[in-house]
């Protein structure tokens, strides 16, 4: 069972806890300099830390930036994994790691100096928990407009916790890949990230870490929120543009379908959507057309988001039907 974890480190206060930080990057040159600078400033007192960066075949400054960091940051190494996909990169890195604790993050975050200390303290304090999640807050390039703050689902669009993360037992869907830690015993049980979803090329399906967490929960893992283990998520100016934000709805819909119907690998439902949902979709589509030139971006966004989300859901449903050979 994944929760049958060796807690010998907790009983040996004289030992340094081994901890690995893992992240993937594809053309992350715009954010990596700030992120790598923060990694160099982390408090690693009493920790045996390894940093593993996976270059996903970048064509920008990423290879040079990572190589320079590896030469200057203690115990950092870089892997090259060309097949596109964040989850493919994570799985490739995880197969090389022997650390007790593994912290997963992204190439566009700014961790606090005590980030790893907070995670390690939680792991020692709560040996019955297997997966830990820290808080993620936005680092805006400029003050976002009111409609973004009031109408946009912060988690689905920006990968940040819209509400304050509360310390203690947590739902698996509140632990996100930009700031999570797992015990090595979880991997020893055979769990890995699903390489068919998560950030990749094209209209990928969102939710790679929440799908992983759903399977981990079914296997008996327990989840703990550690809000003090905080990172800031760098939001780029282009990510505050209306079309970019609305476009996340499609990927979010694909991810929602996958989490609802495909975590267990079962055949998809016979109906793409219930009749009542089709009627709702028709109303939202009409509303979207009526509001297409509206100056009220909050109302316009809600209609656009609902339509794109549903189109993503339908896309995933039809793809699942083809895969399973349903009629």
Please summarize what this structure is.
With 327 residues, the chain is of the alpha/beta class.
Overall number of strands: 9
Major beta-sheet overview: 9 strands, mixed
Distance between the termini: 37 Å
Total helices: the number is: 11
Kindly estimate the percentage of residues that lie in beta strands according to DSSP: 15-25%
- What Rg do the Cα atoms give? 20 Å
CATH superfamily of the largest domain: Spore Coat Polysaccharide Biosynthesis Protein SpsA, Chain A
CATH fold node name of the largest domain = Spore Coat Polysaccharide Biosynthesis Protein SpsA, Chain A
The coarse silhouette is globular
Low-confidence stretches: 1-12
What's the architecture of the largest domain in CATH terms?
Alpha-Beta Complex
What share of the residues lie within helices? 40-55%
Broad CATH class of the largest domain: Alpha Beta
- SSE order, as H and E? EHEHEHEEHEHHEEHHEHHH
Quaternary organization: single chain
Write up this protein.
The chain contains eleven helices and nine strands. With 327 residues, the chain is an alpha/beta fold. It folds into two domains: 17-240, Spore Coat Polysaccharide Biosynthesis Protein SpsA, Chain A, CATH 3.90.550.10; 242-324. Strands 1, 2, 3, 4, 5, 6, 7, 8 and 9 form a nine-stranded mixed beta sheet that branches. The chain is globular and about 60 Å long. The model is unreliable at 1-12 (pLDDT under 50).
């Amino acid at each position: 069972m994944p929760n049958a974890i060796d807690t010998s480190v907790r009983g040996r206060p004289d030992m340094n806890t081994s901890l690995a930080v893992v992240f993937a990057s594809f053309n992350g040159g715009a954010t990596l300099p700030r992120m790598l600078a923060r990694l160099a400033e982390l408090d690693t007192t009493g920790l045996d830390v390894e940093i593993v960066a996976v270059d996903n075949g970048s064509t920008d400054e990423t290879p040079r930036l990572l190589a320079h960091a590896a030469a200057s940051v203690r115990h950092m190494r870089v892997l090259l994994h060309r097949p596109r996909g964040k989850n493919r990169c994570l799985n490739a890195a995880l197969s090389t790691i022997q650390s007790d604790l593994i912290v997963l993050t992204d190439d566009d975050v700014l961790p606090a100096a005590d980030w790893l200390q907070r995670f390690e303290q939680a792991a020692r304090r709560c040996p019955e928990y297997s997966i830990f999640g820290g808080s993620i807050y936005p680092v805006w390039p400029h003050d976002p407009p009111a409609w973004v703050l009031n109408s946009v689902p912060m988690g689905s669009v920006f990968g940040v916790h819209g509400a304050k993360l509360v310390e203690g037992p947590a739902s698996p869907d509140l632990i996100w890949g930009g700031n999570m830690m797992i015990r090595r015993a979880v991997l020893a049980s055979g769990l890995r990230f699903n390489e068919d979803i998560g950030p990749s090329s094209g209209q990928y399906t969102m939710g790679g870490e929440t799908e992983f967490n759903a399977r981990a929960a079914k296997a008996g893992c327990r989840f703990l929120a550690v809000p003090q283990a905080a990172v800031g998520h760098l939001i780029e100016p282009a990510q505050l543009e209306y079309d970019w934000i609305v476009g996340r709805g499609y990927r979010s819909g694909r991810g929602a379908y996958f989490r609802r119907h495909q975590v267990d690998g079962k055949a998809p439902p016979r109906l793409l959507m219930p009749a009542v949902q089709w009627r709702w979709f028709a109303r939202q589509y009409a509303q979207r057309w009526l509001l297409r030139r509206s100056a009220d971006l909050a109302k316009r966004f809600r209609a656009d988001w609902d339509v794109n989300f549903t189109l993503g859901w339908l896309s995933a449903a039809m793809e699942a039907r083809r895969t399973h050979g349903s009629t």
